[in-house]
Structure formats: structure tokens, C-alpha cells
Design goal:
The structure is a single chain. The protein is of the alpha/beta class and 451 residues long. It has 3 domains: 121 residues, no CATH class; 138 residues, D-Maltodextrin-Binding Protein, domain 2 (3-Layer(aba) Sandwich); 137 residues, 3-Layer(aba) Sandwich (D-Maltodextrin-Binding Protein, domain 2), CATH 3.40.190. It has a 5-stranded mixed beta sheet with strand order 2-1-3-12-4, sandwiched between helices. A 5-stranded mixed beta sheet has the order 7-6-8-5-9. The longest helix has 54 residues. About 2% of the residues have low confidence.
Amino acid sequence: MANPLKPSDLKQSAINIKTRFVAISWRDLAISFGPIALLAIFAIWLAIKFIHPAPPSTITISTGSENSSFWKIAEKYRTILARNGIKLKIVSSEGSLDNLKKLSDPHSGIDVGFVQGGVAGDMPIAGLVSLGSISYVPVSVFYRGHERLDRLSELRGKRVAIGVPGSGSRVLALTLLKANEIELGGTTELLDMGGDEAAQALTDGKIDAAFLMGDSASPPTMVKLLHTPGISLLDFSQAGAYARRFSYLNELKIPKGLFDLGKNVPSRDIRLIAPTAELIARDDLHPALSDMLIDAAKEVHSGANVLQRAGEFPAPLAHEYPLSEDATRYYKSGKSFFYRSGLPFWLASLVDRTLVVLLPIILLLIPGFKLVPLLYGWRIKSRIYRWYGALIALERAVATHTEEEQADLLQRLDRIEEGVNRMKMPLAFADQFYVLREHIGFVRARLQNRI
């Protein structure tokens, strides 16, 4: 059994500990740790300055008219985001062009919106980024007559419905027609009409052709028109040229029988052109919300349908708007570790932001702590060397001093010895401290021998 510690042993241990702390110069420690502390403070300031704050609990999305396809998609997003405690506020609009206008206005309160490619035109889009394309929006041009048409230029001189004012369909239709030298005020009658109204007017023979896109070109409407005698879907023979000339357009192929295998509708392969619908956001959207929106888009849009293969959307396709850095990172490597680890969203966000602050500090402190002993050792040694300098100067004076200078030299040596004895010297440097004191005694002996 071990012997219990005696009171005298405890007292001696306390004296030893006190001796160690007394021997430490706190001023030297402060000077040694100072640069590291300043670097750590700077790293904290830098991290806080550039770190994203906690993500907001509510975001606002601009869609389309109520019960439109974009509206219904947003409702699905809302259900998905609600799983993580994020509320999605849905705002109706007149369509893609209206969504873009609201996103461009920093005071509109809109964070994200659905925008069809090709509607930006000359609008300012600085400060807007894409989170990816979510679907194709085919340009469907239906026309009356038994003569087969395969070029938009063949619509010259006809009555053509191009969509309602303010819609993205109208903007794109005017752009495509202008490329074929068909413009407002010319011989071709361009009518502000879209959707079911345009489809009915075409069926009734009141117009010769109609541009139908987005909600107005829903599969039921297209199937109905394709089954109507005397109405055909324009086959874009120049689809490849359109896709090359307009970066936001894609070439699509509709296989024959796609809409009705039994009746073989359409009766032949048809080439179409299609922009994509994109999820557009303001460039200050929180990265965590960007990830969650793309997650929701994957859940809603990744399935196969008559126009796309499974997994084709959402896709990082940069057209008119730059792909955001957060979206680029997501499509390459997915969500960050903490967001996919199963932690609650608020906790994952907290941990992720905390690490942003801690990592630069750790990276600075690891080499910093290795540097501190070197700085501290240099500081202690510099004090010893300073006294050696004074001692060497005094020793050189011993050889040439006169009798009158003897008392002055002894006083100088006493001051050196007194200053050395007052030094706080860590135990690690005790050997150098005692060597210095021996050298002081050596110089004192020389001086006394001269006397």
C-alpha cells in the first residue's frame, strides 16, 4: 500500500509549483503569444465577415397563374421544403416574363421563380443566377391546311396567334418570327391570343396558326388539336439551326405514335425546338436554401415523361443566366456532409457555419503553437545576450582602467549582477542563467586581481 503524502511533501510540492510560475515572465509570454492571438482574431473577423448567416425560415417563389403548371410545381416544392421546417410562400404571376421582372426588382420580396428560356431579351439580369433547368418547354406551332409546313417563314401573310401580352410565349414567338423576317406591323397578322382561346380559334378557322407553349401546350390540348381534321403540328426542319443560333433552344424529336399508339398520332416523326424552364434565383440566396430547392427539383422533375428521360432534369445547363456557384458545387458533389447526414436542418446549418469559423482558426493555431516556443526561447535568450553584451564591454574596460575608474567599474558590475538576479528565468534556461552568473564572477575576479 502506498504511503500517504505528508504535509511537508504537499508544502514542498506547492513551493515547487510556485517556483515554476514565478520563474516565468508573463510579459515574455504575452509577447510570444501576441502575434498568434492577433492572427486568430483576424481569422475570426474574416470568417464572420464572409460566413453566411443562418438561412431564413421563409422564402418566396413567383410562379404563374393559379393552377398553372408552375403553380402546381411550386405546391410540390412547398410540401418538400416543409419537411425541413422551411415555409415556401407562393406568389402568382402572369408568367415567365412577369417572374423575371419581379426577380430583377430587389424590393419585390421574390427570392426565386420559374423562367422560360428566351424571354430575357434586353432586360437587366445582373444579380440573377440559375439553379438549373427543370424541364423542356416545346415550341408547338399548330396550323390549318393540308399543305405540309416545316418552316416558320411559310407563315408569312397568315393570321398567327402568338400569345397574350406579358407572357414568355409571346416574347419567344416574336423572336423566332423576327429571325424569319416576320414582324409586327407587316403583312402577317400577329394576334395577341394564347392558350385555349387560340386553340379554339384555330379549330373554328378564325386563325391560320398558333404558337402554343408552356401551359397552353399541355398534352391534352396538343392531343385534341392533333386529332382535329385539317390541323397539323409544324415540323421544324431547321431545328438544328435554331438550336445553334439561339443558345437557349434545344432540338427535340417527337416519335410517331407518341401521343396515341393506336391511332398513330402523330403519323410521322416531328422535330421541335424547345427552351428549358429554369429555376432562377437572386444571387444572395442562402447556399442551404439553394441545396434544398435543387433537392426538391430532383424529387419533382427527375422522372421520365413523353419529352424527357429519367434523371435528365434538373440539369446544370447555363443559357442566359450564369449557374450559381452553390448550384455548380451541388451538381458536382451534392449537399455538404452535415446536410446529408440526417441531422435536423437547423442543427446541420449551425454545425456547418460553426466549422466555417473554427477551421481557419485551427489552421492558424496549429503552426502557431509550434512557433510560440521558438519565439519564447528567442525572447529569453535575447535578454541573456543583452547582459552578456554589457559584461563583455565591462571586461574590455578592465584592461585599460585607471585607479580612479576602479570604483565605477565595480558599481557597473554590481548593477549587472543585480539585474541578472532580478531576471525571471524559466527552469528550461536555468543552465544558461547559472553560466552567466559564473561569467559575472569571472569578470569580478579579474577586476579584483587588477587591483
